[in-house]
Design the sequence.
């Protein structure tokens, strides 16, 4: 018998659309929204819960025992890949990292960290997506392409925007739907932001394109910057910081906010968990008496690339393929415990592997609003095995 589910939350991207209607029958999806990111997410809901040791199938208890033995014998473990977990499972992963005195990181990539480091330096003026949707009359997409990465963003959150501007290094799918496209090379971005800020402060009479852009900004009653990944090197965040400062300056004349258009699953929630627990948002070393943080020094990327760990507990493989080649090579030389709901995407053969269903629980939208995500295809028994079940079992068996 067909069953129609109303207002399902989709975690296919960080929009976390909560208005999805889905028809299912006998554990299969018959009809779902026409969104490619949603379709990819739905494919992750019904993974066969298989455990493997050295690529050979094993039972759950034996796999857990092997994982615990590796962690207990490790001298320098790392726990990472928390971005594909619910908040509840991220807390468990942190507890494991604390118990084995590991280095812990939210993801295995340093993407989007410039925005976190910039916020630590100068703060941020932001708002919920609901406020942007109902109040903004101007939206600026800065070095991002939501039509490609977040297909429903414009339809859901640009309802009141009378004008959409795209600033990017090259045209993209979003610029084709925009009212204005401003092409700025990445190496010229800092100068463009600086000129724009001077114009908004009335300190420049330039006829450069930045003056026209500044006039558009100051003419808005409520504007929003939607920001992509601006600084490729997370240790150098001048562009991100300058843009945040421009938003702050604009608030002296009108109302402006900024939101990072993140595409790293539930990494924001993981940053919240680490901040609550240690005071630091990512890349924390728990080896000593007190948590240590030094930018990206203890990040998964840097630790793996430098060969500074001997066991890796990868709690989700969401961003695993984003590792640099040196990090991937060193990862292949150490023992890996991998929990994944996308087993087909793995390029490595872990020492211990847990194929699991999508992790239910609380997930953070890109504006840090928490929403409950459920796996509506689960039918009971072992098929309900998720990352939380694996992490709970590992934590229970650790000495």
Sequence:
């Amino acid at each position: 018998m067909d069953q129609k589910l109303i207002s399902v939350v989709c975690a296919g991207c960080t929009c976390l659309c909560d208005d999805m209607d889905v028809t299912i029958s006998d554990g299969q999806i018959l009809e779902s929204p026409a969104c490619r990111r949603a379709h990819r997410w739905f494919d992750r809901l019904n993974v066969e819960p298989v455990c493997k040791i050295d690529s050979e199938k094993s039972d759950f208890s034996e796999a857990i025992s092997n994982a615990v033995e590796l962690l207990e014998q490790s001298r320098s473990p790392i726990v990472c890949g928390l971005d594909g977990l619910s908040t509840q499972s991220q807390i468990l992963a942190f507890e494991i990292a604390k118990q084995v005195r590991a280095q812990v990181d939210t993801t295995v990539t340093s993407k989007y960290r410039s925005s976190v480091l910039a916020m630590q330096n100068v703060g941020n003026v932001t708002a919920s997506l609901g406020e942007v949707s109902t109040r903004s009359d101007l939206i600026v997409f800065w070095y991002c392409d939501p039509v490609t990465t977040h297909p429903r963003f414009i339809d859901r959150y640009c309802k009141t925007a009378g004008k959409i501007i795209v600033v990017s290094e090259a045209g993209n799918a979003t610029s084709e739907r925009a009212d204005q496209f401003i092409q700025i090379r990445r190496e010229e971005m800092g100068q463009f932001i600086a000129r724009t800020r001077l114009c908004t402060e009335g300190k420049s009479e330039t006829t450069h394109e930045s003056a026209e852009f500044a006039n558009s900004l100051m003419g808005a009653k409520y504007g929003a910057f939607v920001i992509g990944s601006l600084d490729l090197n997370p240790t150098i965040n001048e562009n991100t910081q300058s843009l945040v400062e421009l938003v702050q300056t604009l608030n002296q004349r009108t109302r402006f906010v900024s939101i990072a258009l993140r595409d790293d699953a539930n990494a924001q929630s993981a940053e919240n968990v680490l901040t609550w627990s240690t005071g630091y948002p990512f890349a924390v070393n728990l080896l000593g008496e007190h948590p240590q943080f030094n930018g990206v020094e203890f990040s998964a990327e840097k630790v793996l690339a430098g060969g500074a760990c001997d066991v890796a507990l990868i709690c989700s493989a969401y961003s695993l393929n984003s590792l640099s080649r040196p990090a991937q090579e060193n990862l292949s030389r150490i023992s890996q415990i991998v929990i994944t709901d996308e087993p087909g995407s793995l390029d490595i053969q872990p020492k211990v592997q847990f194929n699991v269903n999508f992790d239910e629980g609380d997930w953070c939208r890109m504006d840090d609003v928490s929403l409950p995500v459920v796996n509506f295809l689960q039918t009971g028994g072992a098929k309900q095995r998720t990352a939380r079940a694996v992490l709970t079992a590992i934590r229970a068996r650790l000495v």
About this structure: The domain at 48-111+265-397 is CATH 3.40.50.740 (Rossmann fold). The radius of gyration is 22 Å. Residues 119 and 241 are 7 Å apart (CA to CA). DSSP finds 14 helices and 19 strands in the chain.
